[in-house]
Amino acid sequence: MEINSYLYKLKNTYRLRSNIVDMYNLTNRENEIALQIIKGHSYKEIAENMFIAYGTVRKHASNIYVKSNSSNRVEFINNISR
């Protein structure tokens, strides 16, 4: 499992525009998950892509929404699109 996680990190470096990361004070992991949320991936898909538990994705997504003053995925995407 650790090899898969390492290979994932090598292949996928997700980055949001730095002003979004700075504006909402996102961690690196939240940054990776936020970009996948923006791309329309489900939590299950994100968990599979990143080799982490579904519940971990939900927790990170919850933190992202709190930090961005959003209630849900749609509101988060609308907030960053401004």
TrEMBL record:
SUPFAM superfamilies: C-terminal effector domain of the bipartite response regulators (SSF46894)
The keyword Membrane is assigned to this record: no
Pfam families for this protein: GerE (PF00196)
Keywords recorded for this protein, A-Z: DNA-binding
InterPro entries given in the database record: Sig_transdc_resp-reg_C-effctor (IPR016032), Tscrpt_reg_LuxR_C (IPR000792), WalR-like (IPR039420), WH-like_DNA-bd_sf (IPR036388)
Superkingdom of origin: Bacteria
SMART domains named in the record: HTH_LUXR (SM00421)
Residue ranges of every copy of the HTH luxR-type domain listed in the record: 19-82
DNA-binding keyword on record: yes
Protein name, entry field: HTH luxR-type domain-containing protein
